[in-house]
Target: Orc1-like AAA ATPase domain-containing protein
Amino acid sequence: MRAHAVLERRIVAARERAFVGRAAELALFEKTLTGAPDAHPVLWFHGPGGIGKSVLIDRFAHRARAEGRLVVTVDGRSVEPTEETFASAAQPVLREEGGLLLVDAFERFPGLENWLMEDFLPRIPLGTAVVVAGRDAPNPRWTADPGWTDVLRSVALREFGLVESARYLQLRGLPRSAQRVLLPVVGGNPLALSLAAESLGAAARSSSAQSAVPPPEWRPGQDVLGSLLPHLLGRLPDPDHRRALEVCAHLRVTTEALLREVLGERAPELFDWLRAQPFVEGADDGVYPHDAVCGALRADLRWRDPEGARELHERLHHRLLDRMRSVADAEVPRAVRDLMFLHAPPDRRCCYRAAGSGVREAPYAPGDRAQVLALARQAEGEDSAALVAHWLDRQPEAFRVYRAAGGDEDGIVAFLAVPHLPAGTPDPTDPHTDRDAVVAAALEHARGTAPSLPGDLIAVVRFLVAAPGAREGDSWRAMWWRLCGELVRTERLTWVFTAARDGEQGWSPAERYLPAVDRQPATAGPVPTLRGLDLRLHPPVPLLEASLQDRLSGEPRPDFAIRHERPAAPSTLHRADFDAAVRDALRALRTPDLLAVNPLSQCRIAAGPDTDLAAVLDRAIAALPRERGGTKRHRALVTTYVKGAPTQQAAAHRLGLPFSTYRRHLTGAVQRVCDLLWQWELNGVRPEADPGTDPRPGIGTRP
Model:
């Protein structure tokens, strides 16, 4: 008995030393235990598995016993989930005032909540404290009942913050170098931290290492994931619910609309289930899982089904890219941020979830002029402010202004200016050559490097200015997100240029991906480096995708760090001529000789070394069923051009359609193929083929 007492004290002391954080929860319990006037006699702590509910319950029990209080624990993991067994286990607190009833793992008592509320708890003696802990928050009936308003307090347990997590790992014996690697991967879930620390400790012990220092690319192995996920997630109803979680783990925020695109008609049910989970948080624009859940689900999917993980990542990538092109103008930075989160490595995901929220973007308005000029003068001097004034007069729509969110929302902390100019033959009355040497040099380079068509544009990122201070980082990010979106969304954009001194703050993405042009501008004062990229040779979407992979992984691609030569850019047709060539190509789909001389074969869509025009058409045709109503259009086009019906009347007969209905479907299909290929031609946006669609059903090989 004496040995047992000594061992118990040792166990309790170790738990005391390892306890971290939860100061607010401990203070709340202290009020309840001591009967403070503003205390709630019943506390309900809820949160996902592994968040530390049972550890907190143990802490409460130890505190109450230290005062000589009666402590009764009813644990859902060891007590039968019936009213009788619950009442029997909790009976002692009904006979003695001033005790403490602790109910742990309450989610294992399904169906007892109403009984607890209406029958058992009202019989608790005054002065007795009650703490309930479980995965789920209390039923809304508790808070809706005026009788319980001052009696019950519900508290959601959150993950540890960065400081608490680091302290937790320090107490587990992990050095700071290990903490820097672990924390971005496993988040602040105490169980995840504990399992990861134990995994590293075991590895260190087995290798006789002096300390557990993981490599920078460390990811949790199956020893961690296999133990962690069941605790975090509990029992999932079916595979669709797991798939919904996997989708949610890949996105900055998940909406019902995004779920519907991936999981179909069960989306409303699955979204309601997601938002009810204790490890899922709500935001203004959707829901997202805790960091530990996000990291564990992603890692486990990559281990269980690598091909499925790649397919899901690619599918979400295309959905977010489509959204970037289609959202309202005000939503563009957020859409870019969502795409960046998808590609972000674990140590940056938390940054993209919150980054940029410190500033609010708005189009320039005439009332902003004085502040914009003052900021330009402060940051870059009088000459720069004069140029800003010139562009405010010529293209005010090229400016975006940024204000601090939640602070002085009248004060402008940053502004961006991206004038768009015709890429073709200069207008004799063009005022920019004399007023702005940088823009003049950009125009001269674009017009002298490769021919352009009427309607083609160049974009010059002329001003990117942020006031120094707490919002500066958010300002840079928000402005570059806007720039990424504009590159993808602007049609007929053939060149993008930037001009800044090398190493100047905020311009590093330009230095990374845009090479310096041969002829630099002659300007007074510090000379900026003019950089530019021909978007006909490096289309915006592939450029953005490469920059996402490279910038977020830290590995630059050599492809873009090149000097400009004068290659002959693939020809671009006028839209009417382009559409006519698409129609001719569809009619010649079964005749390779005719396809070879079609004007589309000289355009950018067919300019790749491994791309022929037939494959380009196949991809566009296979994308039709992905769209609403696309299956009908796809069948009409395939029957007419792919299977080669002798006449349109024969095609309508094969499909069993009235001729007028068939014609409507075919016309819509052809127009949609034209639209998809035009977007590919201008912006490098390849149509996403439906994975279950054979573009040439019934045809084994091309004739």
User: Anything to note?
Assistant: The two ends are 91 Å apart (CA to CA). The chain has five domains: 18-156, 162-218, 231-354, 359-553, 575-683. Residues 551-568, 698-703 have pLDDT under 50 and may be disordered.
